[in-house]
Amino acid sequence: MHGPPQTTTGRGLLLFAAIMLALALWLSVGRGEWLASGMWFALAIFFACYGSIMSGVLERWRALLLALGMASGIVAFGYAVWMAGLHP
Predict the structure, then answer these.
(1) What is the pTM of this model?
(2) Sign of dihedral through CA atoms 26, 27, 31, 32?
(3) Contact, 35 vs 58, CB < 8 A?
(4) What per-residue confidence (pLDDT) applies to 3?
(5) In angstroms, what CA-CA distances link 62 with 2, 8, 22, 57, 81?
(6) Averaged pLDDT score across all residues of the chain
(7) Separation of CA 8 from chain center
(8) pLDDT of 42-52, one tens digit each?
(9) pLDDT tens digit string along 3-14?
């Protein structure tokens, strides 16, 4: 993430975020599993934030995207722990 933008990697992350968003929408709206889709929504936000940082398109929003990506990554990790049954 330091150095020149890597547009190919950034576009790949954005495409992966779009696929995860479609999966989250299918789980939430299509099947009604709103709690299970939360992890996929958080991962879609995470990959969208880091994809836009890697591609270098929103340089003036870099700090906000970094904070939002970090927060959504923590939320996705919390959902994964909850879904795995590792919570107290």
Answers:
(1) 0.85
(2) negative
(3) no
(4) 61
(5) 12, 18, 25, 9, 28
(6) 88
(7) 18
(8) 999 999 999 99
(9) 667 788 888 999
Enter the DSSP assignment of 27.
Answer: I
Amino acid at 57: V
CA-CA distances (angstroms) from residue 57 to 8, 20, 42? Answer: 12, 21, 21
Calculated CA dihedral for residues 50, 56, 57, 62, nearest 10 degrees:
60
How far from 77 is each of 2, 43, 58, 61, 73, CA to CA, in Å? 25, 9, 26, 24, 6
The CA–CA distances, whole Å, from 53 to 19, 76, 77 equal 18, 19, 21
Residue with the two structure tokens 């939002």:
68
